[in-house]
Amino acid sequence: MKNSETAPEPSPELLTIGTLAKRVGLAVSALRYYEEVGLIPPALRRESGHRVYPESVQGVLILIRHCRDLGFSIEETRELVTLSTSSERDCVEARAIAQAHLTAVRAKMAELRRLDQCLSRYIRACSASCAGGPAPDCTILSDLRQGAPASTDSSGCCA
What we know:
Structural class: mainly alpha
Strand content: 5-15%
Strand order of the largest sheet: 1-3-2
Number of helices: 6
Protein name: DNA-binding transcriptional MerR regulator
Keywords: DNA-binding, Transcription, Transcription regulation
Order of helices and strands: EHHEEHHHH
CATH class of the largest domain: Mainly Alpha
GO molecular function: DNA binding
Low-confidence stretches: 151-156
Pfam families: MerR (PF00376), MerR-DNA-bind (PF09278)
């Protein structure tokens, strides 16, 4: 049945978009978006024009929600959804996607640790030398204007 076709009126296998969204813990707008980008099949339409989905879409949406909660991109999520229904493909593909994502997450965590250290140095320097003084004389603002590290050690800051 194509998107322009209408679905029969109430059926236990068809769920309204609102019911489905509530069941999987997503906003209705998220379901519309996932349909728009092709992560879930197009909704059927009742004669009233309301979207309805087969109950089988619920499992796919739960998978999508968990992928997005873990920070997988739309494309990574699309590939994982495809893998979840393809018995001809090997789970090593899913592992490779998860491994690549984990590597990216760890790189972001390392960058956040560097930012934490840099900001901590700025704050310590301010506390030690100028806190309570006029804002234009603040070491944080001075260092930010110059692009200078918060300390004089050679490891630099935020670099």
